[in-house]
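Morning run. Coffee first, then this:
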Amino acid sequence: MVGIPLLLAVLVAAPDWATAVLLYGLSIIGAHELLTAVCGAEKAKRWWGLAGTMSVFAVTSVYWSDARFADTVLGNLGVFFLAALIVLVFVCAVVEYGTEHALSFTDICTIFAAGLVIPLALSALLCLRMLPYGGGMVLIPLVAAFCSDSAALFTGMACGKHKLAPRVSPKKTVEGAIGGLAGGMAGMVIFRIIFTLCTTQQLHIGWCVLIGLVGAAMGQLGDLSFSVIKRQQGIKDYGRLLPGHGGVLDRFDSVIFAAPVVWLIVSHVTL
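And here it is:
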């Protein structure tokens, strides 16, 4: 329970660079969790540093892409470092080929997923935080995803009968998924009221419902997608960082999918 107020304090009250620091931590831990789950503990120990460093520069390149850094050397520096690390992965694959530490194609893809895909997806939160009224905008993917998770859980417990994807997540039901979509939209309507009271800025009700629907749908897809990996690897949770919730990837799997789509809607859909 302590983690929620701390998360809100960093995202809402602290400067935007604090959000970047938070994403550094989440990305580095998430990289270790994914590498351990897919590649095994030994390879995770050997390649986590590379994937974690890549994730830091992925987030940094997004932060330095802001207009404030457009005329500075920082504007492009993060991207160049990130490109160098991508090249380094392939150099390592060539050098280590035929040895006991050789990187398989699966290992390389996992390093890129852990060091690039997940951090860049989470960096959509940073993009939202750097907008006007960013302290409120950054919460939108969290509201859509987490309200959907809660509504799906309670709806599924109350009236769930038809299995949604039994081989991936046996407890999830079609009724729960529909309840989750409704929960995402309802959460965004409530968020709109609170946002208006705090900022006096009106968000279009249709825009909020759209984000709630799409964010909830993508959040559910993210949950199921990361569950597929767990089923394939025969693990229950990605980690034990959050008591009762598993690791970073267990808790933020829905946000990883919802945040980029929410950012696209915020950036390109105007109502």
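The mean pLDDT is 91. Good start to the day.
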